[in-house]
Amino acid sequence: MLRIPLLFLLLAGHTFACLWDSDTLAEEAKGRPDVVRIIVGWFDRYPPEYYQMRLDRVTRDIRSNPNDLALYDDAAVACDRLGRPGESIAWMAKKKAILDTLPEVEAKTHRYRYLANLGTFHVHRWVSQPQEKRDGDLTDLREGEKLIAQAIKENPDAHFGREIYQLLAIRWLLWDGVSPIKTPPETHLAHGKFHWIETPFAGLDELHIDGITGLIHLGAAWESTDAFRSLALVLDSAKMASIAELAYLREKELLQFGKHSLHPIPLIRQGIGPGFSRYLEDRKPIHAYFPIARAAAQHRNAGWMAYQEERFGKGMHPDTHPDFWNGWVEPAFPAAPGPTLQQRVEGFARGRPGLALLLILVAASLMVLSIYKDIRRAFQGTTPGTSASG
User: Fold this and answer.
1) Interatomic CA distance for residues 127 and 223, integer angstroms
2) Which residue in 254, 270, 288, 245 sits closest to 12, CA to CA?
3) φ, ψ dihedrals at 88, nearest 5°
4) Bridge partners, residue 255, by sequence
């Protein structure tokens, strides 16, 4: 059995998205959160007031500084987080009008962000539609795929390469269930019928795990059954069975709350149910740990939200008050279950030093047993009423 590594470092909604605004840079500067924390929901999220206050501020700032293109990104992402992707698309049109007037060298970085954000907003507008309309009209989804593919050409390494996995997800949603799907060749990945990454596959490395967890942490896939199923498959193929089981349990939790796949083909959508790790021998410790970690994450996030609400009421915001977070005390994350004594012995024995020591112990045990038998025979041969010569 594979245990959950406590220090295994890797790099929210119902979609797959990477958005660019001032929060993105701040989050990425913190480093790559632990994948276990992401699966159970232990990461920063923000209430509507956070984005509304930002939108009000940047709207005022744009009036006095209309050429500051970063402000348009902040305004557009704020609208998107508030569930208004149509307004986000309108903000991108205003940015594009200014972008077209800039020299090529200056425009390059801003053009990538424009394409990535606009593509994501189109996908989010598609997702926001009722299922019947969403299934019957893929226009926004196709437009999002085109724009994000262009963004990757502009800057393939942005977001630590996460946009490639966003593109994989979108192309799977556009899949008709029959025709081959064009996947980015650098990923060495293929699509499955019921998930947007097929396994087993060649070229597996941490980037695949990083790509999907990034969509959950910095994007909007916290409530996506498709994202957690794909993450679980990748973790399982990487022989990280315990963590894969956690991802499957999160998928099962979402399904129990009425979430389901976004795939527009009903037969594909209906064929997706709760999965489980193929390699995990003992599921009990993981199944016991998951509700504990989820409850702790929910408690932590409730406190995190309440902390913000209290300061918003005083007119404070992280954008304008550098000391906004000074009073926040991060609670302890619940310790993950470690291996049993038997598993520690088995793991030690699998290594060369362990195997050598095991052979020595076996040889010593055989020697002790042999000596014991000799002593016992000698003792029995000298017992009163017996003859040493037989």
Assistant:
1) 12
2) 254
3) -60, -45
4) none
Contact 244/232 with Cβ under 8 angstroms? yes
Reported as a single tens digit per residue, the pLDDT across 301-341 is 999 999 999 999 999 999 999 999 999 999 999 987 765 44
Q: How many CB atoms lie within 10 A of CB 98?
A: 15
Unique residue bearing structure tokens 């609400």: 309
256 residue type, one letter: Q
Closest by CA to 235, choosing from 38, 54, 367, is 38
Q: CB atoms < 10 A from the CB of 321, how many?
A: 13
Amino acid making up residue 177: G
Buried b (16+ CB within 10 A) or exposed e, 309-320: eebbeeeebbee
Q: Are 300 and 42 in contact (CB under 8 A)?
A: yes
Secondary structure element (H or E) that encloses residue 47, with its range: none
CA dihedral 210, 211, 213, 216 (to 10 degrees): 160
State residue 185's pLDDT score.
61
Rounded Cα–Cα distance for residues 145 and 215 (Å): 16
Q: Please, which residues have CB within 8 angstroms of residue 31's CB and are 6 or more apart in sequence?
A: 9
Which region among 21-30, 193-202, 364-373 has the lowest average model confidence (pLDDT)? 21-30
Angle between helices 48-64 and 284-312 in degrees, nearest 10: 50
Q: Is the pTM of this model over 0.85?
A: no
Task: Write the pLDDT tens digit of every residue in 233-259.
Answer: 888 888 888 899 999 999 999 999 999
Query: Could you give the count of Cα atoms lying within 13 Å of 278 in the half-sphere of its Cβ?
Result: 10
